[in-house]
Design a protein that fits this description.
alpha/beta; Elongation Factor Tu (Ef-tu), domain 3; Rossmann fold; six-stranded parallel sheet; three-stranded antiparallel sheet; 4 helices; 20% helix; MRET
Length: 240
Amino acid sequence: MAPGICHYVFRRDDGQPLPFLPGQFIQVHFQYADGTETKRSYSLATVLEQGSEAATLVEIAVSFVPGGAATALFEGLEVGDSVQASGPFGRFCLMPQDDNRRYLLIATGTGVTPYRSMLPLLEQAIATRGVQVVLLQGARRPEELLYGDEFRAFADRHPDHVRYLPCFSREMPREGSAHAHPDVRRGYVQQCLDSLAPDPGGDIAYLCGNPNMVDAAFQELRDAGLEPRQIRREKYVSSK
């Protein structure tokens, strides 16, 4: 999907669908070389069909870490191979009781994965209560923008309700390329939050990805007046 990141698709070996809430994650269980048991967590990237609560496909995005044990596991997989996994877990989800006017969805790297899964629920919230959605997605370079085409297509389908803002910290897209449009930002996502005018009276924010970004963006949103209950966080920590 991008340098050092792969998208994997699995099916349960019992043939049953996997019930889950968009934003939840699974844990993949495996062993280190010395036989010690360990596990890694991966947010579900699966996009459920409208009205469905279970998935026939289990999709995740895996970021490779040089020398990482989980990286060795996934790099060695071939079509038809199996992994052991448990779940789903987590509460990084859209809540049925939400009555906010706008969602601020902020992510870096594979932290954008749960937002892909949330797209049908966001579409439903747009249709039923006219909610606004801003997706601010950080990457170093355009080729590292995960699921960017899907998010752009979602914004194009809902131009009055959705803004998609790719944010690049090292390299901007070339003029005329697919990623070159007026809402592209330069820098780190937490530096762009002021331009979104966070509203304590109407916003709920989601932060997912690099822990430093999550902490910095959380503080920016708190400084803007959002209460902790209006800010939902999930940090992605690389492990070997």
